[in-house]
Amino acid sequence: MGKLKIECFDKKIKLNKIEKAVYKTLGQVAYFKVELVFQDGESITALNKNTRNVDSITDVLSYPSLEGIKGKILHPQDCPTELEGKYIFLGSIVLCEDKIREQALEYGHSEEEEREYLITHGLLHLFGYDHMTEEDKKEMRDVEKEIRFILRGVKE
Q: Which DSSP letter does residue 73 get?
C-alpha cells in the first residue's frame, strides 16, 4: 500500500487527515509527493498572470506534473519517480493566505476548513480532475464531497 505525502515548509498545518482522505477516496496505491506553498494576494496574482495569463487574485493554483491520470490507479512503474525511487511527484499547489481568510469569513467557517477545502481542490487538479465543463465540474464536486465526508471521520 502506498501513501500520499504533502510537503509544506512554510506553515505549521495538519495534513495527515487530508492525505488519508484523498488517498482513500481515489483508491491510489503508489507513493506520491506534493509540494504545498502559501503566498499573499499580490504574489499569487503575479503568479496567476505569469502562468495562466489571468491578471487577478485567486485562491488556489495547481501545477500538475503528470497528464491523463484522472480516474487511474497509479503504480510506481507507471510514472517517473524522484531520485530516491519511492515517491511519484504529482506537482505543486499554491494557496493564497488572503483568500483563505476572506473566503472563511464569507462562507462562515474556519480558516482551517477553508484551507482543507482548497488543498483538497488543488490535489484533485493534480490527480487530473478539472471543472472546465459542467460535467467535469459535477464529477470534481462529487469527489470533493466524498473527501469532505471522510475528513469528518478521519482521526489523526
A: P
Question: Which set of grid coordinates corresponds to residue 46?
Answer: 503575479
pLDDT in tens, 43-100: 999 999 999 999 999 999 999 998 888 988 887 777 766 655 678 889 999 999 999 9
Distant-in-sequence, close-in-space partners of 25: CB < 8 Å, separation ≥ 6: 143, 146, 147, 150
C-alpha cell belonging to residue 105: 469569513
Look at the block and give the residue holding cell 504545498.
Answer: 36
Pairing of strands 60-64, 31-39: unpaired
Calpha distance 64→127 (Å, rounded): 8
Amino acid at 33: K
Contact 35, 93 (CB under 8 A): yes
* Gap between the Cα atoms of 107 and 116, Å rounded: 14
Q: Look up the CATH superfamily of 3-151.
A: Metalloproteases ("zincins"), catalytic domain (3.40.390.30)
Q: Classify burial at 133, counting beta carbons within 10 Å of its beta carbon; exposed 0-12, middle 13-18, buried 19 or more.
A: exposed
